[in-house]
Every structure is written in structure tokens, then in C-alpha cells.
Amino acid sequence: GNSVTQMEGPVTLSEEAFLTINCTYTATGYPSLFWYVQYPGEGLQLLLKATKADDKGSNKGFEATYRKETTSFHLEKGSVQVSDSAVYFCALTFEGGSYIPTFGRGTSLIVHP
Amino acid sequence: GAVVSQHPSRVICKSGTSVKIECRSLDFQATTMFWYRQFPKQSLMLMATSNEGSKATYEQGVEKDKFLINHASLTLSTLTVTSAHPEDSSFYICSAFDRTSSTDTQYFGPGTRLTVL
User: What is the tens place of the pLDDT at every residue in B35-90?
Assistant: First the structure.
């Protein structure tokens, strides 16, 4: 079956540090890949997506590149802010299928001033 | 991006009562809506898939008689927690999706915090 593996958290960084949150997936076929962010007490917000190999999704300074050869979709940001503190979920879906997303377990990011 | 709303955002009820949570897509037609449950510091657990005009498909282990889902229109799905008990206390999140569009992006509601006393 399909699965998404994220690095364990929490990830604790100082403001302006470089962020990487690893995400790898297992799937038959070519899924679309997503990163969602969940701020405390809120629902999920789509952060970025990529639908095919070598696509790069980007938003709000965050980037992730769809790497088919390594089945990865790592999230990066060059300089984090305190306001980036949240839980980040990596997910995949298949177009034309049930569209039910497969989520990773989430990675908590804590950014200190 | 597309907007999905949930109402109420928070609800506190007594054990044995029923609670209805609404999920609305505000600027697109949601042919499919998903209902999730999230426990503290955990990922989302899919409860059911709701397609407009048809019966919901429940995930294994989810009681369909306890969690009633109705998706009567392309912009509204409701989840009713019947005879709620303290163990039903959780964060419930819906997501909406348009199967007929060219994108497979789901849009999530802000969630509903249910507390059963």
C-alpha cells in the first residue's frame, strides 16, 4: 500500500536557521505530493504541492522538489521565523483514484527567537 | 485558494446528546468531502469519504450509526455525532475536493473542537 514517512519531531531551531523536514513515500505509480501546515488549534492549510517528477512546489519561502529517483519530497526553508512554528504534514494522493490522501505522521517545528 | 468553513469551531455538550458539525465549500463545488479525526499530537485519521448524493463510505472501525454523515449538496456536508460520550471528544476536520476539476488538491476546514462532558 501507499505510505508516507516523515522525520520525527520536534524540530527545534533558532530564528533565521535553515530548515529541512524529510519526507519519503512508498507508492505504486506516480502520486501528487503535498505539504500541509497546521498552526496550533487550527485545521490544515495547503502549503505547497507538486504533481510530477522534478516539479518544485514553493510558497512563503518554503520549497520542496518531487524526486522520483529517491521517492522524496523534502521541505526546506532558508531562514525560518518564529511564526513558522507549527506542525507540518507531508501527504500524497493519486489522481483518478479514490483521492483519499495518505498522510505522514506530522513533524512539529519550534522556532525560538 | 479555495475556502472551506466548518461550524461550529468549538462545541461543548453533555454526554448522551447529539452534535452536528457542518462543513461548507464556499467558492467551489465539493463533489467529495472527507471527514477526519485528530487526537492530540497525532496525524489525521480518516473517518469517512462522502460523495455528493450518495451514502458515505466509512473506514474500518468507524461506527456509521454513531457518526452520521450527510452530503446533500455540492457545498455542504454534515457530521452528526450521535449520543456523544467523553471518548468522542476530539478535533474533527473536514476537507473538500472537486473530482471534476483538473486539480487533485483538497482544501481543509479549520476544524471543530468537540468536548463531551
Answer: 999 988 788 899 999 888 888 999 999 999 999 999 888 899 999 999 999 999 99
Nearby residues of A97 by Cβ (< 8 Å), 6 or more positions away: none
Q: Cα torsion for B55, B60, B66, B67, to the nearest 10°?
A: -50
In whole angstroms, how far apart are CA A88 and each of A35, A40, A62?
7, 11, 11
Contacts of A46 in chain B (CB under 8 A): 1, 105-108
DSSP B100: T
pLDDT above 90 covers a percentage of chain A that reads 73
Strands A32-38 and A23-26: unpaired
Number of Cβ pairs < 8 A linking chain A and chain B? 51
Per-residue confidence (pLDDT) for residue B91, from 0 to 100: 94
Cα of A95 to nearest chain B Cα, Å? 6
Q: What is the pLDDT of residues A65-84, one digit of tens each?
A: 999 999 999 999 999 999 99
- Please list every residue in chain B whose beta carbon sits closer than 8 Å to the beta carbon of residue A42: 110-111
- A43, B113: Cβ pair inside 8 Å? no
